Amino acid sequence: MDSKSIIGAHIAVVDDEMANVELLRRLLELEGYTEVSCYTDPREFLDSCRILPPDLVLLDLMMPQMNGFEVLERLRGSLEDFDYRPVMMITSDDDRDTKRKALSSGARDFLAKPVSPVEVGLRVGNLLQTRFLQLELQRHAERLEERVRSRTAQLEEARLEILERLALAAEYRDDATGEHTRRVGRACAALAEALGLPSDQVEDIQRAAPLHDVGKIALPDTILLKQGSLTHDETAVMREHTTIGATILSGSRFPMMRIAEQIALHHHECWDGSGYPDGLSGEQIPLAAKIVAVIDVFDSLTHARVYKRAWTTEEALDEVENLAGTKFDPTVARAFLRIHGRMPAGTASDTLHIDED
Ligand SMILES: [Fe+2]
Q1: Using alpha carbons only, what angle is made at residue 301 by residues 300 and 303, rounded to the nearest 5 degrees?
Q2: Pairing of strands 87-91, 109-112
Q3: 3-144 and 174-339 have identical folds
Q4: What are all long-range contacts of 183-189, with beta carbons under 8 Å and residues at least 24 apart?
């Protein structure tokens, strides 16, 4: 705070006697204050406050149109930051009760009539210094809040980026572009939305789904990239990516990570109970995992890998349709087919809700 800002403070003088108003104006101008507004009618003063509230008010207590207490009351009702705009009562009444009432109504200080020039200068200076320190504190608090907001957003961004990179690391040997994981995230979100899930859950599924195969990070290339069918033992190792992924993601306190853990563990479970690792069936399988199961298979079928050609969209949609009710939850499969124009909207009641844990 510099003295320049105090000198430029907006001071309002409200007193029904013109001589008093003029005297105070002159005293304030002698102290160097340049923005002094004077009012002999408190109603005019209150009107002006709606447009430009002053930094400090010198307010006469006894006025015929409206006394100082009423003015204070109206100011309190109309100014949001009334508590930070000091009011100094000018009164010839030295009665203690009057002073107490004025203080409890929001006045900060008193000036006794007849006013002393030295006292006016000192008291006005003190009140304005307090006012400007409060403004500076307020600005400082706002700047700090803004920095906290920005840091929080950066942390959130970093957290999401780390998750994306973790998903990419798992897919790297198979799909170095990370396109599969990103597509799975987007498509799972669309399917979750089509199933009527609330937007926060849709967003969690979009973030969590790319991590479905994070456990593959622990699999050997000889199995992960093998062309041709896997032996019985190799299949058992390959299946471990579900439990390894769940272990990597386990124990988080964030709902999104708990969904990611469920997805990693159960995205190879089947509706009829023939899947792995736990052989869950039907509604035992978490919905997020059932969504990823459909999307993962469809995306893998429609994109080429080193060991297989890409299926056409129609071929892959046929496969989803065929597997509805055996591998896939029929409701989830229907919603997916509907997104792809295979089923007219409203053919089934497909609104579901995901488990919280
Ligand atoms: Fe998988």
Answers
A1: 70
A2: parallel
A3: no
A4: 183/299, 184/209, 184/210, 184/212, 184/292, 184/295, 184/296, 184/299, 185/209, 185/210, 187/295, 187/298, 187/299, 188/288, 188/291, 188/292, 188/295
CA of 26 relative to ligand 1 center, distance in Å: 84
Per domain, the residue ranges of the chain are 3-144, 174-339
Q: Cα of 213 to ligand 1 centre, how many Å?
A: 5
Question: 347 CA to middle of ligand 1, Å?
Answer: 30
Mean pLDDT of the region 11-20: 94
C-alpha 16 – ligand 1 centre gap (Å) = 84
Residue 174 pLDDT: 72
From ligand 1's centre to the CA of 276, what distance in Å? 10
The pLDDT value given to residue 3: 56
Report whether pLDDT(307) > 90.
no
Class of the 174-339 domain? Answer: mainly alpha
- The class level of CATH for 3-144 reads alpha beta
What is the CA(241)–ligand 1 centre distance, in A? 7
Q: How far is the CA of 76 from the centre of ligand 1 (A)?
A: 65
Average predicted confidence (pLDDT) for the chain = 90
> How much distance in Å is there from the Cα of 68 to the middle of ligand 1?
77
CB 172 within 8 A of CB 180: no
Q: What are phi and psi of 308, to 5 degrees?
A: -160, 155
Distance 240 CA to ligand 1 centre (A): 9
CA of 188 to the centre of ligand 1 (A): 14
Q: What torsion do the CA atoms of 163, 167, 169, 173 make, to the nearest 10 degrees?
A: -170
Report the distance separating Cα 230 and Cα 145, nearest Å: 57
pLDDT bucket at 176, cuts 50 / 70 / 90: low
* Residue 351: predicted pLDDT: 47
Ligand 1 geometric centre to CA of 242 (Å): 7
Mean pLDDT of 305-317: 86
CA of 163 to the centre of ligand 1 (A): 17
Distance 181 CA to ligand 1 centre (A): 11
Residue with the bigger pLDDT between 176 and 30: it is 30
